[in-house]
Write a structure and sequence with these properties.
alpha+beta, Rossmann fold, Jelly Rolls
């Protein structure tokens, strides 16, 4: 027997606690050392690595260090503050942090700190006692944007305690006009959206009725009515937007879609078949070099299915030709009272000369923008760009930042997310067209080091050894997570509708998530079904299944899939989630989608279109067991424990002409969890099919 084995339990507990404390102390000291080594280097992305490492310790001392840095940031000061605020919100979520975070909020009471308030309130919003937070939201002494930030935090955490507050705010608890009324009413609608899957929550119906009733009031601004209508459309999963209160009252009574919709918002702009509801529109157009790549047959076929009347297909060879033709069609269809801007992005992002601000869609302004669009021609051919060059890389963040800075008067230079003029006069609709992954932003910076490192050009993939002092570090917003977080900041109060169109090598998951942030729609051109992969799924789960015997238990999705309606799991409603994969074999990593991940099953649903009845083969890989239905009939079952391998199971099937329903059940005992499906012809060759 070891000496430790004979020790009393109390002594062992003390020793374990001491070991844990020493481990925490060592982790903090290591993170602080890294932070101090990088925090004053020029590249903000390098600084961010140190900030996040320090925040990840969750040590109260780390919070104090970051609070000090927030007060005295380095250029670009505003974006360093935004990134620090997000790091604080991500890591400091425990009850022991609440007092320090509340103190941090009280120290920074200016409107420009609304993003900090949104994140610093997370620990308090997650806690049991919300009285102080609710009191601050109610207090007219607190600045309007800060009050709205706290209400948005409650919405983000799905706190049912916010529902009575929604009823109050929509009633007589606000001034009859002004900034506070606008912000708080629109954030109240966010609470409804956040809690849409628990309509039985105490006070939900009353809160929803109070918000719907606002649409009937003459003293509610048109902007607020539009934001409420958009939010209600997403809440009730309706594709179109109406400010007709009668329609929404009927929806609320039925809690399901009704047959007819009221009068829709007039003057709706359209782009590539996506219809918006706003009147101040920004088009964000990808002008990176890859936009000159020729269209594939699949891309052209997909595009022709969308409002192709009036498009001269003889002149469309490249992705840019396609985008230009559809943008021209959209501009020519704008109502004269709509304002618009076109922003092109490559290495840099800039508005067109014809639309330096949001211009009225008069014939003169529209034709000037179209002429500028038509003047864009390919540049020199290079080894990496055999079809020519346009404007380089993919600075998507810069383009979106310009969109939120735009007004009909002048550009908002600072704190666009809390600019009152931006609410009244900034864009309310954004269309994004892109064919690549973000690989540039406005915040790249040079830095010095000892040399010898290998650097990579992300647009061309070319590598080289850097000379001492010659390194150029990319900014933080080429990382998808950072980009999405900053769009969330910019749109937290603006509530602009964002629609996205993706083609080529675009990150389809990013484009879908951008559309979700803007309560808009996403469309893919040439992606769905590419390479015979089933690469777009609806996922629901997880269902508890303790062993292989339980994997065969019938669950609700097997009785028929209704994507707009939730399924009940563990007594709670759970909705289907949209998931895309760009994996070469179509692998879907369920570990990244669902929790818990062990001793569970999930369902994946896809719709597949073929032009005629087709004999085909399903190539299936799964970790662990799998069952597959085609058009409601079981075509394959293999409930085994195994790691994922592409095409490990092959099943011969027949697809009916038109749309076919594919349902996959994937079960997991422990470890990794995921699956893939490819659809080939009967001999294993490529099969052309579409998805939606």
């Amino acid at each position: 027997m070891s000496r430790r084995a004979g020790m009393p339990l109390a002594v062992l507990v003390v020793l374990a606690a001491a070991t844990l404390v020493r481990g925490d102390e060592a982790a903090y000291e290591k993170a602080l050392e890294r932070y101090e080594a990088v925090i004053d280097r020029p590249p903000i992305a390098t600084r961010l690595g140190g900030i996040r490492a320090l925040a990840a310790t969750r040590d109260p001392r780390a919070l104090a260090v970051l609070a000090g840095r927030y007060a005295k940031p380095r250029v670009p000061k505003d974006h360093e503050r935004y990134l620090i605020a997000a790091a604080i919100g991500r890591s400091f979520t425990q009850a022991r942090h609440v007092e320090s975070l509340a103190k941090l909020r009280r120290k920074h009471r200016k409107t420009e700190n609304a993003w900090l308030w949104f994140h610093a309130a997370r620990a308090e919003a997650c806690g049991k006692d919300l009285a102080s937070l609710l009191e601050t939201i109610r207090s007219s002494k607190t600045r309007p944007f800060l009050r709205a930030a706290l209400l948005e935090r409650l919405a983000a955490e799905g706190r049912e305690e916010a529902l009575p507050l929604v009823s109050e705010l929509a009633g007589e608890e606000l001034p009859r006009k002004g900034l506070a009324r606008t912000l708080l009413l629109e954030s109240a609608a966010s609470v409804l959206l956040a809690l849409r899957d628990v309509p039985g929550a105490p006070g939900y119906a009353e809160a929803a009725r109070s918000v719907v009733d606002l649409l009937a009031l003459d003293d509610v601004e048109a902007r607020t009515k539009l934001v409420i209508a958009r939010t209600l459309a997403r809440t009730f999963r309706v594709d179109r937007v109406t400010t007709d209160p009668v329609f929404w009252r009927r929806m609320l009574a039925a809690l399901e879609p009704v047959a007819t919709i009221g009068e829709t918002v007039p003057g709706r702009p359209r782009f590539f078949g996506l219809e918006a509801a706003g009147s101040r529109v920004v088009y964000v157009l990808d002008l990176s070099d890859s936009m000159l790549d020729p269209l594939t047959d699949r891309e052209q076929a997909d595009a022709k299915r969308v409002e192709a009347d009036g498009i001269d297909w003889a002149g469309i060879r490249s992705r840019f030709d396609l985008a230009r033709a559809y943008l021209k069609q959209s501009l020519e269809g704008l109502a004269p009272d709509v304002r618009f801007m076109v922003i092109g992005f490559g290495d840099h992002a800039e508005p067109f000369r014809a639309t330096k601000r949001l211009e009225k869609a008069s014939s003169g302004h529209v034709q000037a923008a179209i002429r500028e669009l038509e003047e864009i021609e390919p540049g020199r051919v290079t080894r990496k760009r055999p079809y020519g060059t346009l404007r380089g890389a993919t600075n998507l963040h810069g383009a979106l930042l310009r969109a939120f800075q735009a007004t009909s008067r002048k550009r908002i230079d600072d704190y666009e997310h809390v600019d009152e003029g931006g609410l009244e006069d900034g864009c309310d609709t954004i269309f994004v067209f892109g064919d690549g992954r973000p690989n540039e932003d406005d915040f790249a910076a040079g830095d010095r080091f000892d040399g010898g490192r290998i650097t990579t050009d992300t647009e061309t993939g070319k590598t080289a050894e850097a000379r001492p002092g010659s390194a150029r570090y990319y900014g933080p917003y080429r990382a998808v997570g950072n980009l999405l977080q900053d769009v969330r900041r910019m749109n937290l109060f603006r509530k602009a509708e964002i629609h996205t169109l993706a083609m080529g090598e675009a990150d389809n998951d990013l484009m879908r998530r951008l559309a979700d942030l803007g309560l808009g729609r996403y469309r893919s051109i040439g992606f769905l079904g590419r390479g015979s992969r089933v690469n777009a799924w609806w996922i629901v789960g997880p269902y508890r299944a303790t062993d292989a015997k339980a994997w065969g238990r019938k669950e609700a999705p097997e009785d028929g899939v209704a994507l707009a309606l939730p399924v009940t799991i563990g007594g709670k409603p759970v909705h289907w989630r949209r998931v895309f994969t760009s994996h070469a074999a179509g692998f879907v990593n369920l570990d990244r989608v669902l929790v818990p991940r062990n001793k569970v099953c999930a369902y994946a649903f896809a719709e597949v279109f073929v032009e005629a009845e087709t004999k085909a083969r399903l190539e299936i890989g799964s970790d662990d067991g799998v069952r597959v239905w085609l058009n409601d009939a079981v075509v394959h079952t293999n409930f085994v424990t195994r790691g994922w391998k592409a095409a490990e199971d092959e099943v011969d099937v027949t697809f009916a002409k038109g749309w076919n329903r594919l349902l996959v059940k994937v079960c997991e005992g422990g470890g990794a969890w995921g699956f893939s499906v490819r659809i080939t012809d009967a001999d294993g060759g490529a099969l052309d099919f579409r998805m939606r």
